[in-house]
Every structure is written in C-alpha cells, then in structure tokens.
Amino acid sequence: MRFTLMTSLALLLALLLVPGCTNNTNLTGPEPQQEVTLLADMSLAFVMASDSLDLTPEQREKLEAALKQFRQDVEAAMRAHKSGEMTREELRARVSDLESRLDAEIRAILTPEQYERWKNRQHQIKNHGGVPYPLVLPLEQLARHLELTPEQITQARVLVHNAQLALRHAVETIHEREKLKEAIESIFKRTGAQFQSLLDREQLAKYNDLKRRHAQPKLPYPLPSPLDQLARLLSLTPDQLEKARAIVRGAEVAIRQAVETQTDKKELRTTVGNILKRAESAFRSILTPEQERLYEQWKQRGKGSG
What we know:
By secondary structure, the protein is mainly α. It is built from 13 helices and no strands. The two termini are 30 Å apart.
C-alpha cells in the first residue's frame, strides 16, 4: 500500500480516536487515553492545515515519511503496552517522546512561516475538544463582539456542539483526503449559515466584517527573525538598523502587492520566495564580515535544533 500524507493521518486517527480499535482495555484509563488523544489532535491539525501550508513536493515527501514512521512507532508502543511489556507511565513517556520527535522533524521540514501556521492550527484544535472550531471565532468572543442575547448564545451552543460531533464523526469514518475535506467544508458551511440565521441585521453585518478580517492571510516576515531580535544578536549600528528597516518595509510592500494581484498559488509562492531571498540578500549586504559570520552561525543552529 502506498502511504500518502492523508493515508498516514487517517490510519493514525483510526488507531487513536476510534473507541475499541486497539482492543486494549488497559488503554481506557484517563492517563494514557489523554496522551493518545493529544496525538490525534496533532494529526487532525495536519489534515486541516496541509492544504494551506503550500508544501513543495520535497516537503510533502518528507512529511509523509515522518508521519509513516510516527504511526509505526505509536503502534509498536501500544502493542508493547497491551502485551504488558510497557507500563502506563512508560507508554505516556514514549508517546510524549514521539510527539516531541515528530514536532522537531516537522519544524525542520517546514519554513518558519509554515511551521507557525501548523502550530496555530494544532493549538486551535486542542482548545476545542480535538476538532476544528466550526465558527470564525470561539462563541464567547462572538457573544461579546456581536452582543448576543442569552437566547442566541444558548442556540449557538447547540449549533457548535452538533457541528463538533459531526466533525469528529467525519474524521473517524472518512479516510480519503478529498472526501474528508469536502465533509469538513460542508459542516463549516452549514453551521455558519445556521449561526447567521440567529443574528439580526446589525449583528450579521458585524459578523461578516469579522469573517473578512479573519480570512485575510498573514503575510510572511521578510527576514528569518524579527528585526529587533536580529539587531540584538548582531549588535547592529543605528545606520545598519535604519537600512534594515527600509529593506523590511520594501519587502513587505512587495509581498502585499503580490498577494493582492496574483491569483495563481504556484506563481504567488514563487514570487514571494524570490522577494524573501532578495530581502535576506540585501540584509546580508549591510553586515560586516563578523556580523555575517554570526548570522550564519545563528541560522545553522536554528536548522540543527529543528
């Protein structure tokens, strides 16, 4: 069987989320179940975020390999626990170690901007019961922004609960990438329409404005780290700092213009990549030889730590 990114995720989710799939009564206790659920959340985050990460073929191949190995290692640990070779504490430690190792591999494979998107998605899913949240913002925030009435809040809670049940069912039962994606999008669309039907005209206008602002893409930073951090790291002079700020501002303008004018994702990715390369090259050009040596060492340490 050829393991694709989605196949690996689906198998892992089947192993970790579907009740009874391990046939191991020892795993029904709260402690190990909590650990494997955390890993299931991380896998679902990949399902939700993979399309938005703009992966290169090489990145996708590396991620597939890492996820396949991760799945095999988790299966081996759970078999060892089932056979009595591993205690609950040892299983929890092993799962935690595998999670940390996978996260380090992911960080090394993705760009900093891709990794940030992945971590944000993982955080969002873990905060909402292991499934993606079906509204543009958590209900508590929407209630404040839109000044929902108690009755509206009660009705919206029912919508969110039902949507989360439907999302979990989809994740547990649909193993084909495109079908799962379609199912999730359908649940999102249906829940959004039901929520909007609860709002009056003024609330609806505010909600649509929130959606527009929420949908705006976060543009990548032109340098590998914020300029204030680089300034401290490299002891930039005031003149260098001013030049670096001009480089960053120019790159940000160019990136925003590209995002607003280019519709082809592949072309946009190439354009933004070239802008980032030019910005870093321009930044390097203002450094002294010693600063450039420190800068390169810092970058290599970052790659090594994953």
